[in-house]
Amino acid sequence: MKNLIALIIAIFSFIFISSLAYADITVEMLKKRASDKATMVYSEDISRIDVGETITWIPTSKGHNVHFLAGPEGWEVPKKSKFNKEVSITFDIPGIYYYQCTPHKGMGMIALVVVGGDISNKDSIAKIKALGKSKKKLKALLGELQ
């Protein structure tokens, strides 16, 4: 009986630890971020995930979406989500992905996803024409990637 209990505990422990290793993340579309009071932002400026992981974007207020402008060679994710709708995307190709909120891009509502720690397409992302506050923010975000 003790062996059976030990086996059950071992199985559940393995399942729990495995689920932590592949934890997907959630990013909120915000009017104001509590941590730094920045407005018209995503909850994460840079999301770092492993290949095969999923990010779910959740609108916390109306008027936001996720619009991908660039990614690594061969990237195939949905380019644009609907407004005010939750969207989940699984990333299978390593590299940097650049996205924005369509109506708030000029206000700096942009962010990056780094998949698999691969930043080899950093130079191509830097060439993207960003508007308004997004231009300075994109440069700063890319500067954080080493």
Write up this protein.
This protein is α/β, with parallel strands linked by helices and 146 residues long. Helices cover 25% and strands 29% of the residues. The protein has a 4-stranded mixed beta sheet with strand order 2-1-4-6, with no helix packed on it. A 4-stranded mixed beta sheet has the order 3-8-7-5. The model is unreliable at 6-22 (pLDDT under 50).
Instruction: Tell me the number of helical segments per DSSP (H or I, 4 or more residues long).
Output: 3
Kindly state the percentage of residues in helix.
25-40%
- In whole angstroms, how far apart are the ends? 53 Å
Unreliable runs: 6-22
Task: Name the CATH superfamily assignment.
Answer: Cupredoxins -  blue copper proteins
Number of strands: 8
The overall pLDDT, averaged over residues, is: 89
Categorize the overall geometry: globular
Number of domains: 1
Structural class: alpha/beta
Main beta sheet strand tally, sense and closure: 4 strands, mixed
CATH architecture: Sandwich
Residue fraction in strands? 25-35%
Report the C-alpha radius of gyration, rounded: 18 Å
CATH class categorisation: Mainly Beta
Element-by-element helix/strand order: HEEEEEEEEHH
CATH topology: Immunoglobulin-like
Entry keywords:
3 helices; 146 residues; four-stranded mixed beta sheet; 8 strands; alpha/beta; 25% helix; globular; Immunoglobulin-like
Write the layout of secondary structure elements.
Elements: H1 2-21, E1 25-32, E2 39-42, E3 46-49, E4 54-59, E5 67-70, E6 87-90, E7 95-100, E8 110-115, H2 122-126, H3 133-144
